[in-house]
Amino acid sequence: LGTGAYAVVDSVKIGTKLYARKSVFLPRYNQKSIRNTIQNELSVIRTLDHPHIVQVHLTYEDKTRFFIVMRPLADCDLEAFLEEHTQRPPTQAQQDMVWRWFLCLSNTLTFIHSKGIRHKDIKPRNILVKGDEVIFADFGSSHDFLDEGNSTTEGPAFGHTKMYCAPEVIANGKRGRSADVFSLGCIFTEL
C-alpha cells in the first residue's frame, strides 16, 4: 500500500476485518531513535480518538520490525486521489465532497491542536481517503506540547516536505500550530 524510509504499509486480515499494517524496520545503528519515534506516534494516536484520525488496533514486534495494525484500511492517500482525479474535470458530486473535506480537515486539525498536538508533517501522502471520507495519518513527526504549555519549536526540521512547509519551517525558525495550518492550506490549493 505504501513505503517510506523505514516502513512499509500493507493490508492484513484479522477475523473478518481488513486493517492497515505499518511494518517499521529496526536497523541496529539507530534502533533507539526509531523506537522513540514509534512510541511518540503511538502515544499521540492514542490521545486522538476521532473518526478522521487513524486508530491503533494492536502492535507487535519481532527481532527486526515493529508492527502497528491500524484502522481504517484506506482506498488510497490524498496524493494518489489527486493524481487520479485531476486528469478530468470533477463531477458535481466530487466538488461537493471536496467542500466537505475542507470542513472535515479543518475541524479535525482544530481537534488535534486542542489536544495539545502538532502534526508537523501534513501533506497529501499523510491524509488517507476511505470512500468519501478523509483521515489524518502518520503522526511520527508530531509534537505533544500540552505538558510544555507552548506549541512553539525551533531549529532544524527533519522529515518535512518543502512543498507543504510554512516559510518558518524551511528557515528553521520558530514555528507553532500555524505551520500545520499553512500546510493544510497548501493542500486546499491543490483540491
UniProtKB/TrEMBL annotation:
<dbReference type="GO" id="GO:0005829">
    <property type="term" value="C:cytosol"/>
</dbReference>
<dbReference type="GO" id="GO:0034045">
    <property type="term" value="C:phagophore assembly site membrane"/>
</dbReference>
<dbReference type="GO" id="GO:0005524">
    <property type="term" value="F:ATP binding"/>
</dbReference>
<keyword id="KW-0418">Kinase</keyword>
<dbReference type="GO" id="GO:0010506">
    <property type="term" value="P:regulation of autophagy"/>
</dbReference>
<keyword id="KW-0723">Serine/threonine-protein kinase</keyword>
<dbReference type="Pfam" id="PF00069">
    <property type="entry name" value="Pkinase"/>
</dbReference>
<dbReference type="InterPro" id="IPR011009">
    <property type="entry name" value="Kinase-like_dom_sf"/>
</dbReference>
<dbReference type="GO" id="GO:0004674">
    <property type="term" value="F:protein serine/threonine kinase activity"/>
</dbReference>
<keyword id="KW-0067">ATP-binding</keyword>
<feature type="domain" description="Protein kinase">
    <location>
        <begin position="1"/>
        <end position="191"/>
    </location>
</feature>
<protein>
    <recommendedName>
        <fullName>non-specific serine/threonine protein kinase</fullName>
        <ecNumber>2.7.11.1</ecNumber>
    </recommendedName>
</protein>
<dbReference type="GO" id="GO:0005776">
    <property type="term" value="C:autophagosome"/>
</dbReference>
<dbReference type="GO" id="GO:0000045">
    <property type="term" value="P:autophagosome assembly"/>
</dbReference>
<dbReference type="InterPro" id="IPR000719">
    <property type="entry name" value="Prot_kinase_dom"/>
</dbReference>
<dbReference type="InterPro" id="IPR008271">
    <property type="entry name" value="Ser/Thr_kinase_AS"/>
</dbReference>
<keyword id="KW-0072">Autophagy</keyword>
<keyword id="KW-0547">Nucleotide-binding</keyword>
<keyword id="KW-0808">Transferase</keyword>
<dbReference type="InterPro" id="IPR045269">
    <property type="entry name" value="Atg1-like"/>
</dbReference>
